[in-house]
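Milestone M4 deliverable, item 7.
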Amino acid sequence: MAFRIEAMVSGDWPHVRRIYEEGLATGVGSFELTAPSWEEWNAARLPHSRLVARERTILGWAALSPVSQRSCYAGVAEVAVYVAATARGEGVGRALLEALVLSAETHGIWTLQGATIAENAASLALQVRCGFREVGRRERIAKRGARWHDTVITERRSKSVGAD
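Output delivered:
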């Protein structure tokens, strides 16, 4: 599969939203039940490090969200990576996450974290392959529909940013 990783632009939103909805449909991609509007999505993400994997169409996307508005946490961000159902298992997620790590470091991010529904084995395995480690588990932290789920907390610390 030949694809390239590019910066996301607002015109990509319909494709990004469709892929997000496919991820939500798995039941383990997020606690959300519906995709937000562009305005809501845009406001909740950092303005940099928004990437898409593009072939003829968008195959996946990745973005960062701040973990806090406090300035001391300015270098800590939460990772989101979603891959179209038709492109899963083709290396798209790994390419996106590796590019997201590089982009994050370019923008001064020293810690990336994931809060992944424990049943999402594919996402957890991807994170490990990209240098994340499990740092905890939050039991019965939230419901998706009527069912309680645990989340696995992972992090990746930069070896170059904030390493002083």
